[in-house]
Structures are given as C-alpha cells and as structure tokens.
Amino acid sequence: MQISEPLSAGTYNLVTTDAHNCTASESVTISQATAGTINFTSIENNTCYNSCDGAATAEITGGEAPFSFTWSNGNHTEAILNLCAGDYSLAVIDNNNCITTSFVTIDEPDPIGIEFDVTDASSYSSSDGEITAMPSGGTPPYSYLWSPTGHISPTVAGLTPGTYCITITDANNCTANNCDTVNYTNQLSNNNIAQIMVFPNPSKGIFKIQSNEKIQSVEIKDMIGKKIYYNDCNSKHIIVNQSNLPKGIYILYIQHKTGKTIRKINIQY
C-alpha cells in the first residue's frame, strides 16, 4: 500500500482488511521538522572609525545538519571577518530545507576629533604662549605627543610663536593628528606696527603680500610644520607663486623690521 498525498504533522491510524475480513491496525506519528535557531557566539566591533576589522561568528542549535550559510555580504561560512560598521543578515538552511534568518550589527567608535585652546605669546620673542588639545570621539583614555616640543600632556606652556602639532592615540591605538598656531600680540605702538595685507586669500596659490615697511623674508609651512617655501626679500610688495601646492591650509611667516607676522593662507582650486 502506498500513500502519495503529502501528510501534515500528526498521528494517523491505519486499518487493513484482507479477503477473509480479517483486520489489523497500526498508529503512525509524523513529526514536524523545525528550523534551527541562530546564536551569535562572538561579535567584535571595529576598533577604530572606518577600520573595517569587525567580525561575527554564528552557531546553530536545533534543525538537522548539515547546514548551509548565506550572509548578506556573500560569505558562506559560520564566521565572517574584516567587517565594516553596519548590519549583516544571515540565512541558514538545514538538511530538511528549513530556513531561519537573523542579523548582527557591527558598531564602530566615532572618529577622533581635536580642537585647540590657544593663548598667544605676548611678543614675537616671548615664551609665554600656551596651547591645549581637546580630543573627542575614539575610545578614551588618550595619550598625547606634541611636535616639535615632545611633550606628552594635553597642555603645553612656555611657547614662542609658531606652529605646533599633536598626535593623539586612544585606548584602541587609533590615532589622529592636527596642528594649530601660537601667534603673538604685538605690544609696539601703533606707529611701529607693520600693516600687512595678504590677498587674495583664499587663492589658487598665487597671492600678493603688501606692507607699509620692507619685508625681510617670507616663509610658508604646512600644517605639520614642514617648510615648503622660503624667500629672502627686501621689498614692500611681494608676489608669491606656489600654484603647485595641494589645496589646504598653510602658515605664512612674514619677517619685517618690527617683528614677524603670522597668517593662515587657504589654497583652493
């Protein structure tokens, strides 16, 4: 005897009768196959912003082996590695073609941001400037390294005018860099203060410097303190052509008779 119809789960009674009217019976129970359950036994978030080093491992309880795995990123194994931040779905099919789905979220810390609180020096030759770095994001605590001073604290005091850069490292070894400038407050009388104009600013790398007194030298440094331009001159009107520089912010040092003027210049294309 053969039953071709598909049967749902449950208990069925079978009675057979032969030609002599003799009977026999039997009970048959058909159980319902169930899909397995997905458990994530390990979830590793990104250590740094945009580091894409997350990972997740799935384990199946229930269902009937063998299992096939399909992740939303195309992987077909229990564990997936090198994950960027985001949601990842997983579908698992067992030997009975029962399917179960779930998803996991990989997080990441915010990027490390650096702001500065700057106290300018009282004069060009004074060593009373101060700069403080104020980090945010990442994973505290932070460590600090200033250039060119070598200090390892958030605040550096006793500074002369100039550009100071810092590298901040968080608890996960993620780093960020930034620079700022300690200027100076010229205490000379108004009659002795050089009147400096730098224009246009922003520029495409070609700009003019105009002063009411002769300019002795012009120097440009990038935001990490590297000197990229220097010109000895003896003129009240100077044209600087640095159109080959990448766009960005640079520090301009103008040496004149009554001291040094420091300006930020913005090169845009």
Question: What does this protein structure show overall?
Answer:
The protein is mostly beta strands and 269 residues long. The protein has three domains: 70 residues, Immunoglobulin-like (Sandwich), CATH 2.60.40.1080; 70 residues, Immunoglobulin-like (Sandwich), CATH 2.60.40; 78 residues, Immunoglobulin-like, CATH 2.60.40.1930. It is 0% helix and 56% strand. It contains no helices and 19 strands. The N and C termini lie far apart (86 Å).
Question: How do the helices and strands line up, and which of them pair or pack?
Answer:
Blueprint: E1 10-17, E2 23-30, E3 37-44, E4 54-61, E5 68-71, E6 79-83, E7 86-93, E8 99-106, E9 113-119, E10 129-136, E11 143-147, E12 155-159, E13 162-169, E14 175-182, E15 196-199, E16 206-221, E17 227-241, E18 248-256, E19 259-267
Antiparallel strand pairs: 1-2, 3-4, 4-6, 5-7, 7-8, 9-10, 10-12, 11-13, 13-14, 15-16, 16-17, 16-18, 18-19
Task: Please state the CA-atom Rg, rounded to the nearest Å.
Answer: 36 Å
Helix percent band: under 10%
Mean pLDDT: 88
Number of helices, counting only DSSP H or I runs of 4 residues or more: 0
Order of helices and strands: EEEEEEEEEEEEEEEEEEE
Low-confidence stretches: 187-191
Q: What fraction strand?
A: over 45%
Structural class: mainly beta
CATH class of the largest domain: Mainly Beta
The rounded distance between the terminal residues' Cα atoms is: 86 Å
The number of strands is 19
Number of domains: 3
Tertiary shape? rod-shaped
CATH homologous superfamily placement of the largest domain: Macroglobulin (MG2) domain
